[in-house]
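so the lab meeting is tmrw and i was supposed to have these ready like two days ago... anyway. pasting both below. for each one the top line is the aa sequence and the line under it is the structure tokens. i havent really looked at them closely yet so no promises
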Amino acid sequence: LPRICNHCVNPGCVAACPAGAIYKRGEDGIVLVSQEKCRAWRMCISGCPYKKVYFNWSTGKSEKCILCFPRLESGQAPACFHSCVGRIRYLGVLLYDADRIEDAARAGDKDLVTAQRAMIQDPFDPQVIEAAKANGISDEMIDAAQNSPVYKFVMRWQLALPLHPEFRTLPMLFYVPPMLPVIASIKQGNYDIAGLNDAGLAPMLSSLQRARMPLRYMASLFAAGNEAQVEAVYRKLIAVRVYMRSHKVGDVPEAEVQEALSQGKTTPEEAEAIFRLTSLPTYEERFVVPPLAREGAIEQTQDPFTHKQEAGFGFRQAPERRW
């Protein structure tokens, strides 16, 4: 898995820092380490269950992924998202109810994923829009939340799951469990698919019962051991695979396609939408970066023009360790 910070809603590193150097930005939820306040306690390293914080022994400061916030503030995607060869990373806005954070963190292991989804709000709900505007969220941010690919994966399709939710930090990076390739071999020049003659095409494509990656292991990664949550995700992914094969190749009986869609609790329209966003997305569909208006957050404590003159080049003196 990528060593990128999860930018949790309930970050363990923020709670562990004795100097109060780590904070979560209110305008975009990015967790950052203040290089001026950090006093090298290194509690953040042990406090982060994902081990995403590192200690720089040359400067005596803790460092971590900053989600490339200078790029986000200028409307660009983070570097690791932009350079991903597989184009499997998506960036978008999620609106959540801060009053439900404690309830979501206190939920039982089997209910953690459901509780975290309940914390995330529907950006199309008029009441949510009204409450968001009352709390200072701009119309552009709400529009970005409505077009967010992350909202589709997490809430609408419920395909993406948080990494190790049992830590109860409520991570805001979500993962779609991987699909294994179809088992096949070449015999006498023929492409032979394992189990094709025995169980039909759709069960072979599913391979859920005979998966080489145990379902229990995937559940321990993404659902705190709740196998039903992960199985529901795989059923929907299998339905998309079977439906698209029948649509493109045409060698799957219609009865098996309908059975796969029924087991995955999805529709042909939803399967087509999932395929489009996972296989054929444009740059604008993968990365929906709202105008963050950083100057609005700065002007609460300092004149933005003064800040622009004073900041931007980092520290003007080289950091020195006091040996």
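ok protien two:
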Amino acid sequence: RRPGEVSGGEAQRLALARILLLKPALIVADEPTSRLDPLVQRETIALLAEIVASESLGLVLISHDRALLAATADEVLDIGAGEGATTLPGFARGLQGA
């Protein structure tokens, strides 16, 4: 298919494949699931997590989605509304228990 004919999820997976060709040690993913429906969001994050684990890569995930962060993050750095950065070490565990 032509580039304009692929779905959002297909485009995200293609972008991830292109990144992996470079054999990075770290992936920076800025809102990787924005504008995707919930099912494709879960599939995309599951694929990203699988690749990060199997290839022993680092991942910086930038997101406004607290549920996504709670489900995927080991550590969270909250930049806040111009108030400086705050590390939230128990953030993911706290949200999962809520």
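from a quick look at the 2nd one: Residues 92-98 have pLDDT under 50 and may be disordered. The domain at 1-62 is CATH 3.40.50.300 (Rossmann fold). will dig more after coffe
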